[in-house]
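One such shown below:

_____
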Amino acid sequence: MHRTRVFAHAPVRAAVAAALLAPLAACSSGGSSGDSPAARSDKSGDRPVTVTVTPEGRQAAAGEPVTVTAAHGRLTSVTVTDGEGHRLAGKVVKGGGKWVSDRKAAPGTSYTVAAATRTEGGTTGSARASFSTAEADKVNKVDWRPGTGTTVGVAQPISLVFDNPVGNKAEVEKQLKVTASDGTEGSWGWIRDYSGRDRVDWRPESYWKPGTKVTLNAELNGTDSGPDGGWFVRDYTTAFTVGTEQIVKVDLDTHRLKLVRDGRTVRDIPVSGGTPGGDKRSWRGTAVLMAKEGTINMNSETVGLGDAYDKMVDYSMRLTWSGMYAHAAPWNAAYFGNANHSSGCIGMSDADAAWFYAQVRPGDPFEISGEETKGVVEPGNGFGAWNLSWADWQKKSALR
């Protein structure tokens, strides 16, 4: 480990200052006026404070806290500032003998350290040092949901998908701070996203309470994601509000969809789900409305169903990454409320779809039941975390 050592005393003799400045370039020390150090040392034996800073140098390794230590005295304050003027928070510990930053030094960043000291004999002084960290040879980035400033449904998880593999899952998870206005607690769970990438979601034990304000501070800058993953070189934050409680209950056996708002059924809609007996069956369990996509082209070949369909579809509401939607399906009108005869989606009339589309929002849960389905929605196929028990979900945290 590299260390920068700076002697702090007040006042500092020119010869000592020159000796310090030459090898350290941007490091210096100085202090308040008073008796000469030679005179004071002769009278009281007061020794200069030695201040040591790690990391050190011009290509220091990132990923460790900044540490400032004092010998023959104590630190009274420490300020660490990066090249953009942002302070690195920290605290003085061990009776003033040491200061440690709360955050780790980030890659490709220059830091200036300013320390105020006091000798064992009570003389005040100061010390300055600087260092810079090496650039990251590989950078990991994050795609996150929900977006800041949004209002979401009661089942909306916080979800982070990483560009590169995350080997140091525990270290990354430690940097993810969720705050809810009503104190709601939850757990992170590491899963494989449908895209194949590493992903971590946060959900409460049960659905959010309406009106809850939630903030995520992902303090990842300076964190090493592990072999093949690279460094995080920025922080991420998002804040959202939980809206009205709306639960969509879909019974594929009776071919009905009910929108339940605050415990009251607002509308009961006849629907048709996926055709029984093969790959066109629908998923069951809890799916979460991911996005309202409007009018889109749906092509069966993109979801492995050959040339079954290729058409423009109105009022499309995405429920899984694998291609299950709720949407208008006027071509299937004869089956609404009578039979499941779609290619896996939940279809309804144009009029019902227009009304329903206007009512729901991303984050609303679709609780889907039915005998003739192809299984429960996986956690990574959209937002399927609600299909795990709370105990099983907690086990997916890297900190347990």
Summary: The chain has three domains: 4-132, 142-241, 246-387. Residues 292 and 317 are 5 Å apart (CA to CA). DSSP finds five helices and 26 strands in the chain.
